[in-house]
What does this fold into?
Amino acid sequence: MLTAATIDRAVAAALAEDAPWGDLTSEAFLVETATAHAQLIAREPGVFSGGEVFAAAFRLTEPAIEVALRAEDGASFEKGDVLADVSGPARAVLTAERIGLNFVQRMSGVATLTARYVAEVAHTGARIVDTRKTTPGLRAFERHAVVNGGGRNHRFSLSDAVMAKDNHLAVLTAKGVSVTEAIRAARQLLPHTTRIEVEVDRLDQIEPVLAGGVDVIMLDNFSLDDLRTGVARIAGRAVVEASGGVSLDTVRAIAETGVDVISVGALTHSAHAVDLGLDIRIAAGD
It folds into this structure.
């Protein structure tokens, strides 16, 4: 989903926001002929993500800037590692600096947090997946970072799959329509390639949902005991997803109940930016 066009569109908008009428500081302090070589330095350990996005910030500011990435997306790094080299006109390097850092720090933060969740469940068969709780306009970037951290993507948008949640079921109930009937009716309308997922928050909702012929059942905010019971009742008739109350402190126990998928909103809405810095190593000019 993270295409070159998507990268350029978002990065160009960010650059326009940050320097709508130019970079007054660089233009006032630096002569036009000054050049600079800088390095992207890790100030804490993490998992790298967003290398091409980082490079795009400089390329779109000044095509003459050269960016040499030393780390691939998904690679782990340690404090002090050099992750990229940037060389070119000093004014342009400093104009693009913050936008390049904003993207790569944020994306590496998502990848790093995702890797921690994945490590917690590595001894089980559970997958860690993201949610739609992403920064508006930056979903493709954050989801790319989740994959770099070893996680998987849930549906990208409302257009990708059917996922009936509690509010959908509340509307059905108010109209006197059973969830079983609603699932069967939906199946008749949908292409055969479209999957159907339904969220439940009680054990007694499982059988009516299964009777409708769902592909995935989300067990939302279930206790560990109820998760184990739910997995046993579903017994392989649908993919079992756990959601709600998931944190680094709870994810291991949730995975050990036997669920297939654990969706974690925190991967994208609560990741902190990894501390990376762009340090000038060589500057020259008249």
Observations:
- The CA atoms of residues 73 and 81 lie 14 Å apart.
- The chain has a mean pLDDT of 95.
- The longest strand covers residues 276-284.
